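Aim 2, interim progress: modelling of the NAP-bound target.
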Amino acid sequence: MYDGKVALVTGASRGLGRAFALDLAQRGARLVLLARSAGTLRQVAEEIRERTGGAAPQVIVADLATPDGPKQAVRELKALGVPLDLLVNNAAIGTQGSFLARDLEPQLRAVAVNAGGMLALTHPIAADMVARGSGGIIVVTSGAAFSPMGYLASYGATKAFQLYFTEALAEELRGTGIQVMGAHVSNMDTTFGEGPTAAVDPKADQPSDVAARVLDDFARGRAASYPGSFMNRVLTWPSRVLPRVTVARVATAYARKRGLDKVVEVGAS
Ligand SMILES: NC(=O)c1ccc[n+]([C@@H]2O[C@H](COP(=O)([O-])OP(=O)(O)OC[C@H]3O[C@@H](n4cnc5c(N)ncnc54)[C@H](OP(=O)(O)O)[C@@H]3O)[C@@H](O)[C@H]2O)c1
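Predicted structure of the complex, ligand included:
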């Protein structure tokens, strides 16, 4: 499924994006890696070159939060002259903590990357795939997409945006030869989140396990992937049957239990 295919992974400089890149390379894909940090991206590209013995992946340094970032990325993709077979929309910014206690600016940046940047990249790439009659798109969302949750209010809303967008796009593109899948990941052992002080969940999933499961699910033609524990999948069910107010209250109590209400800016007292 992936052997010889060209895949763009956004947010490939660390965390789950890096894990996707390493796994796709092992499965024989040719990679284009995108993020803002040029040095770290090149390190990942070099790591892949060493592990596979092939050519180093292409690197695109772009900020998906800016209006020009996705446009520049698409220009660079076109200049490479190789059509994309797979787009993995993984880059995102997490903003945990009280909506009012956290600064507004990182929350606006999260909306810009997770919603605007993802749309701006997907639009031209999906159009090209449809014109060729083949391709695949994976959007990494979150368990937080399924329930309104206090202390993840703005981030959770961006993930709900991604969830609805992905499910709707999959239907729009049905019959075009393009496969669209949402990957609803749960807590992972990564450095996710700009500036928060919340501790990593000790039961967090390893990004390499998550990437492998998502890629296996996509290869099986699934419309959705739930790569975490079965309980994480079960936690997405109440919001489908219970009143939304109840879901928001329970989810927010859970967030408080996890200490997300205590998250402050790094450096703030
Ligand atoms: N970690 C979790 O517990 C968790 C839970 C549920 C869902 N998720 C989802 O899983 C995905 C990956 O998360 P992660 O934990 O691997 O996060 P991470 O370790 O913070 O990595 C985020 C990646 O996105 C890139 N990125 C951030 N802002 C960007 C921008 N403006 N333009 C371009 N690239 C940008 C970062 O690279 P640069 O900084 O170099 O730009 C980095 O490569 C995200 O979609 C997240 O919402 C994570």
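The chain has nine helices and seven strands. The radius of gyration is 18 Å.
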